[in-house]
């Protein structure tokens, strides 16, 4: 396989050996302040521990002890895929240890390795739910068993560990598992796939990490096998696990959103490493149509609660938005991979949108509760979840401390811990700032030219991004700062007192930079109205407010009454005052009818001017107790 | 129990012993022509046979043979509730035999009895899925086992048979099963309930049929036990099977729509027979709020695919309408019961709406395919189902010959076969025509005054209802003809050449009728626009067309292109021409965007006048091949 980039040792979740851009790793980018630093701090001090504590409490970590002590299946806790959440926690820990060197966290990580290691069988198989007397046989339920899905998360955690620490016991566990998968499912082995994609990007990344081609070949085999009907019939139909159409023939993402996105990520990895232009083209087109027609304003994906699935084109109901947090993580994974492969910053726009409006929405402000789904319209006030109970369902009305299926909290944790790897990319010509965050960027261009940048910004709340060069260049290079797609007018680049208007894409400065050079980008983060394509029937006659990259929401907490009959006056622009975004709201008294479909247009009898009402960033809604909320608001 | 009405022998699915109105039975009302006669003919000649053939083919009837031959559980086919569909088929057969005396059908009915009878165990238990070696024990899975649900349908079929034929072998099977249920779940027995209500209305009806109080007491016990958390936790939450709130404390129907409606039906039966005003008041209020806030224009109920459930108030997305056919049957059951209990014709309006726009929508024109769900907006052309394959899913995009869960076809069959019992009611003062159909009505008022009416009408297509009296009255009595709620203006009653304007409710004529008297009602069935409460976000800015009781739909088959970007001009009223309803449609060329949420209102670039386009009655859509369809159409 090609080795243009040094994929092995770089502290990255995704480290392609080739492609338009090379991502800067955790050692090259340190997030030092602002929004993302605060989020990483919450993750480090609360969320990771919270997930670990809950998985001890509900026995998912204990499943490994039960395996060692011969107490399975009697004592098995959780769903068939419970092992995977332990691995995702460990991946989060690995990134966090890599980021900060936290010794106490390192000890906890090792304690988990101690409990997992003895469960791995002689041939590399490792799963607490299958294969023992009284359990189903290995690989007897490819549709729902999630065994390869669990291995995928184990391998991703192993790669994270290897790249941040070096090859150790845990990395060996992951490699033994991957070897087992290759032996079992190779060209001469079981000719099938897992109902939940995830092994594909994991094996591709392990190939990058180890330099061993066989993992890539296996990932490719899994990608190519899918879509030919190898899995059995299920209630949700074959598109649920993308078994309806081969990956390279599909036109759009469909079925279970997280499955579709993980598969797309793996397909891109395989395509990049094998130079398969057809495949990367196919996935790019699928993703483009998905973004253009099957994505919520928040970047959320998945319009159906049933099957946690994509709906048809433009079927994007606000009140039934499933928009699973994990699909946000999956969209960021796919967006980042397409950015690296193509260099097109539109993919970084998607990453920004989902990180700030889906992934960041999931945790509560205190880090002890999570949204699983992310509705855009809460019709009835939710109930605050008990802080000491597992929520049975993926409810959209409340953040809950833990779920019976609890994929989201650990997915958020691993994403936030590795956020630094989304910040900047490089190519031979220079460095690109992709996600705008206060950070120290230190790297070296391929010819040895050093790059040292300090980025300061209050983004996403403020539009000023100030980049200070800290080291003299040995030759001219190009600094690019992404201008997000929403900044269609008013973005200004300032260099040496000279201002240039810049458009979405990259703002560029090319020169032999000297220490002390300052480049400033001013993005117009003023609140603005956003409309919808008329085919999005669900929000016809409605308007949303965005401010910079943040989607805003009207919450009953601020309105002082239920939002269901609120409307906004769009004659004037939204007002910004004292750090708040306000819109003029009119509220109507409901006309109560025995039948809701009258023979005349239903103009409300009474409309009251509720005055200027503050909106909240969508990712912060629901933090002040039960409320009703809407992102899309009818026009008055 | 009270015996004001003669409940035992009357050929009725629901025959209350008391209440405002007494329903006329199959022997008192003969449907002789028009829409419903055609539908009954299709049912008799195709649908019943179709269901029987499919249940032979997929082995659901064969399960009874397998039980006799000791081949269970190995040879068991279908879901845990497969027995129930055989019983629903037999109920349909019983009504059909009662209606027509079809000897060949009688022989097929007896053949089924021959196969079922030996499966019943000594103590009355009868189920092909539980209790044998290798099967789960009886009543070990009250959440999902459906054992009492199956008994409920067996008992309803038994009552249908008893009332149309007399007490025979099959009726005895049903009674033995009911006795077993009373013994097992009585006050001193298992203190639990079934995850799927149905036993409640069945036992109440058996009490009415046999005159035995114990069945009513048991039904009441089941109603009162529900809502206290006796069933275990499930993914969908306790509201799924109405275990969240006791029946008499609930404010609205919620959870699984069919479960909620069957339970409401049983609660009304219990309340009526026990004189429980509080309970009947509670269910009436729940149903009123459900109709006012949780019901589609079609009368369809259930906004969520997930859990086949009611959504929140006003959450009525067209494209995700689940609106299960069986929920339509359930709504008709509840509406009819409330009509009989209260006399309020608004409940007959609901029955009319769901029969014509949900139940009648399910079967294809040839009777060999069925909708399980009834969407109000088809975004992508469905695929025509293979005529020889079981559909795995309750797809909304196609009518399929049979489903893995196939509750709907038999439910339609039993409802259509017993349609005559919805047509007319009586009280001491006279007769009420509730469902407008060509029919012969022959009954006797309590004091012996004979009533003989011939009703002629092309309703729902035409608004003229002509009632000819065929027998002299012995005293003055009141003929009431229901004026549907939609006929808010222009309904005219004509008697002896004199015209009176009548309003929704009942048009009344009181006199000592003479043979040859004619009463004519003219209903204004002209096509009209219908709007929605502004809280129904899903259809904001849209309008529907109704014609008389029929909801109309715009189908791509008529438009000649996809309906997703169609809009209607509402300046003028819909046009009626040559028996068609036409509206002026404008179609827009889609503006393709990379991101569907622009910064400016998305006015289409090109709007074309598609001219006057015919609409189809919603219940007939999808009969001309794959199409896109919408009931609610954006206003141009």
From TrEMBL, chains A, B:
Keyword flag Hydrolase: yes
Presence of the UniProt keyword Repressor in the record: no
Domain of life: Bacteria
Segments forming domain Non-reducing end beta-L-arabinofuranosidase-like GH127 catalytic: 28-420
Pfam family, one: Glyco_hydro127C
Keywords for this protein: Hydrolase
Residues of the Non-reducing end beta-L-arabinofuranosidase-like GH127 C-terminal domain: 528-634
Domain Non-reducing end beta-L-arabinofuranosidase-like GH127 middle stretches: 437-524
GO MF, any single term: hydrolase activity
UniProt protein name: Glycoside hydrolase family 127 protein
Species, as recorded: Oceanitalea stevensii
Taxonomic placement: Bacteria, Bacillati, Actinomycetota, Actinomycetes, Micrococcales
């Amino acid at each position: 396989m090609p080795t243009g980039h040094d994929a092995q040792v770089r502290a990255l979740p995704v480290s392609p050996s080739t492609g338009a851009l090379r991502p800067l790793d955790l050692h090259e980018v340190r997030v030092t302040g602002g929004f993302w630093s605060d989020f990483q701090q919450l993750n480090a001090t609360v969320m990771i521990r919270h997930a670990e504590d809950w998985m001890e409490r509900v026995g998912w970590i204990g499943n490994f002890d039960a395996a060692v002590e011969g107490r399975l299946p009697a004592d098995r806790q959780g769903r068939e895929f419970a092992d995977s959440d332990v691995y995702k926690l460990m991946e989060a820990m690995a990134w966090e240890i890599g980021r900060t060197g936290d010794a106490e966290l390192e000890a906890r990580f090792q304690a988990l390795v101690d409990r997992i290691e003895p469960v791995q069988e002689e041939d590399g198989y490792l799963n607490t739910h299958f294969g023992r007397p009284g359990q189903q046989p290995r690989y007897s339920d490819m549709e729902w068993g999630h065994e390869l899905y669990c291995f995928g998360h184990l391998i991703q955690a192993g790669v994270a560990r290897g790249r941040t620490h070096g090859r150790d016991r845990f990395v060996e566990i992951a490699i033994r598992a991957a070897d087992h998968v290759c032996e079992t499912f190779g060209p001469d082995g079981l000719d099938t796939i897992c109902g939940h994609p995830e092994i594909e990007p994991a094996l591709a990344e392990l190939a990058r990490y180890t330099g061993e081609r066989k993992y890539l070949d296996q990932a490719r085999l899994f990608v190519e096998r899918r879509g030919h009907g190898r899995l059995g019939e299920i209630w949700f139909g074959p598109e649920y696990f993308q078994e309806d159409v081969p990956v390279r023939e599909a036109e759009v993402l469909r079925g279970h959103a997280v499955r579709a996105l993980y598969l797309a990520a793996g397909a891109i990895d395989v395509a990049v490493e094998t130079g398969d232009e057809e495949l990367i083209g196919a996935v790019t087109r699928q993703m483009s149509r998905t973004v253009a027609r099957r994505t919520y304003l928040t970047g959320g994906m998945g319009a159906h609660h049933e099957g946690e699935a994509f709906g048809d084109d433009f079927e994007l109901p606000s009140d039934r938005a499933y928009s699973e947090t994990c699909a946000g993580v999956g969209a960021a994974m796919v967006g980042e991979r397409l950015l690296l492969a193509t260099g097109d910053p539109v993919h970084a726009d998607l990453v920004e949108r989902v990180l700030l409006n889906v992934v960041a929405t999931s945790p509560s402000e205190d880090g002890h509760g999570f949204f699983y789904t992310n509705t855009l319209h809460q019709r009835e006030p939710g109930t605050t979840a008990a802080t000491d109970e597992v929520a049975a369902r993926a409810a959209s009305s409340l953040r809950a401390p833990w779920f019976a299926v609890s994929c989201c909290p650990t997915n958020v944790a691993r994403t936030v811990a590795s956020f630094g790897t989304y910040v900047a990319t490089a190519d031979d010509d220079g460095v690109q700032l992709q996600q705008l965050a206060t950070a120290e960027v230190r790297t070296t261009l391929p010819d040895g030219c050093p790059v040292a940048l300090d980025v300061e910004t209050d983004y996403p709340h403020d539009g000023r991004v100030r980049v200070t060069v800290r080291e003299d260049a040995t030759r001219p290079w190009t600094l690019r700062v992404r201008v997000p797609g929403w900044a269609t007018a008013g973005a200004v680049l300032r260099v040496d007192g000279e201002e240039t208007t810049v458009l979405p894409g990259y703002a560029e400065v090319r020169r032999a930079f000297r220490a002390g050079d300052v480049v400033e980008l001013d993005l117009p983060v003023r609140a603005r109205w956003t409309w919808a394509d008329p085919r999005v029937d669900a929000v016809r006659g409605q308007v949303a407010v965005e401010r910079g990259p943040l989607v805003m929401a009207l919450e009953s907490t601020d309105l002082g009454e239920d939002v269901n009959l609120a409307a906004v006056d769009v004659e004037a622009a939204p007002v910004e005052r004292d750090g708040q975004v306000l819109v003029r709201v009119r509220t109507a008294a409901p006309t109560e009818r025995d039948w809701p479909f009258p023979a005349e247009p239903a103009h409300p009898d009474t409309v009251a001017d509720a005055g200027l009402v503050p909106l909240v960033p969508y990712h912060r809604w629901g933090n002040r107790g039960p409320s009703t909320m809407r992102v899309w608001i009818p026009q008055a």
